[in-house]
Each structure stands twice: as C-alpha cells, then as structure tokens.
Known about the structure:
Blueprint: H1 2-13, E1 18-22, H2 50-53, H3 56-61, H4 63-74, H5 83-93, E2 97-102, H6 108-112, E3 117-119, E4 122-129, E5 135-137, H7 139-142, E6 156-160, H8 169-181, E7 184-188, E8 209-212, E9 225-227, H9 231-235
Parallel strand pairs: 1-2, 1-7, 2-3, 7-8, 8-9
Antiparallel strand pairs: 4-5, 4-6
The structure holds carba-nicotinamide-adenine-dinucleotide (CNA).
Amino acid sequence: xxxxxxxxxxxxxxxxxxxxxxxxxxxxxxxxxxxxxxxxxxxxxxxxxxxxxxxxxxxxxxxxxxxxxxxxxxxxxxxxxxxxxxxxxxxxxxxxxxxxxxxxxxxxxxxxxxxxxxxxxxxxxxxxxxxxxxxxxxxxxxxxxxxxxxxxxxxxxxxxxxxxxxxxxxxxxxxxxxxxxxxxxxxxxxxxxxxxxxxxxxxxxxxxxxxxxxxxxxxxxxxxxxxxxxxxxxxxxx
Length: 238
Ligand code: CNA
C-alpha cells in the first residue's frame, strides 16, 4: 500500500497532465452518503428504490415524492469540501491537474476552488423549468415544501441527469478528450457501475491509471495501481 501511494505521488509530481475522474465516494468524507456503500442510499429504507425515484419517468409521474427524497437525501445543509476536493483544487493551481470529471451533483469541487470541473450528471445547485427552460436559483428546489412551479405553470426541476435521460453530449465529449489525452488518470470514489459514465475509463490510453476506492470495482484489473483506502486520507498524503 505504501509503495502504491509513493508511486502515485511521483506520477503526479512529474506530470502536468493529470486527470481525475470521481464519484459519490469523493464526498462521503464530507458527510454526503453515496449510493452503494453499506450506509449508502441504496441500503436505507425508502418507499421506492433510489434509482426509481431518480428516474425521469418517476419525476414526471410523482414530482412531490421526488422532491421529498431530493430535499431529505440529496440536499445536505452545511457540507464542506474535504481533503480530496481541496487537494485536487491545489493540484490544478500547481499546474499538475488539467480537469476534474465528476459524477457528483453536489458542487463540492467548485466550492474547493477547482476551475475545470466537468459535471457528467449535472448539479443540484442549478434548476430550470421543465416546460419553458427558464433558469431558477437552487433555493427554489432545495428548500421549502411541495413541487416548485414556474410562472408558466411548468414544474421546476434540478439541472441533473435523471436515470433514463441522456448525458449532455458537450460535457461527455470534453470528458472523453481529457481522458484520451491524459498522462495520469486517477479514478476515485466510484463503484464504476453507472453507465455510460463508467465506460469512460476505456478511453484512457496511458499506463498510469490509479484506482482509489474503498471497495473493489469491476475495473480493478485494468488499473496500473489499485489503492483501497479513503480518498480524503490518501489525498492528504500526496
Ligand atoms: P456509488 O455507486 O455509490 O459508489 C461509490 C463508491 O465509493 C463505492 O464503491 C464505495 O466503496 C466508494 N467510497 C465510499 N466512500 C469512499 C471514500 N471515502 N474513499 C474512497 N472510496 C469511497 O457512486 P458512483 O459515483 O459510482 O455512482 C454514480 C452515481 C451516484 C452518480 O449518478 C451520482 O450522481 C450519484 N451520487 C452522487 C452523490 C453526490 O453528488 N455526492 C451522492 C450520492 C450518489
């Protein structure tokens, strides 16, 4: 384990083309539950499974129930970036890191100071009307009660990619570009189970792929380094 951490640190120190690709595990040390850990959202009792509530058809059918889940489980007041978010922002400033590609919707990379953040699944810090597409501030959806409505009568929705919806093609092609060109690719805090995001890993062409995750992933055998450790702890050492 120690050797792997030292190797990763060396790769980063010697490179100006590191790309980070992460998921919900990056934010658990900030107090936001992920989906698939034992204490993640998939293992909590709810009337419907989270992947059903977070689907486009469910949102259309029952926006009130969607918003109950959204406000109770996705919006957590007072969360702050942790050591992983903060170190990644520093690595960008120091000229080592070119982009953060995230599946997270919590805005914590930007809160830490990262500038080039590609949000594959959008952000709960933005909202818009599902009918006329007028933008709204996040408070409108993240606090209060009931279903927020636009002056046109449409339901206001978070600017996130729900299950059954396609990813933003522009964000996806930028992510592909960074991963294809990367010298060092660090993948962290993701179970690599959600497609098409998880498939991005296949576009990496280098030989410095580090996978940092608490549990094993289906892609461990693709990686040049596998580190099963808390990502915040790891980033405080590199
Ligand atoms: P996931 O499927 O829940 O996997 C998370 C992975 O992170 C698991 O394999 C854990 O073992 C691992 N993990 C948890 N904590 C740590 C830690 N401290 N250090 C290292 N590894 C850790 O989540 P994915 O991101 O892979 O799945 C993609 C979904 C989850 C995306 O659509 C996200 O939008 C969605 N999500 C996002 C958030 C958020 O924005 N913070 C929270 C919950 C879910």
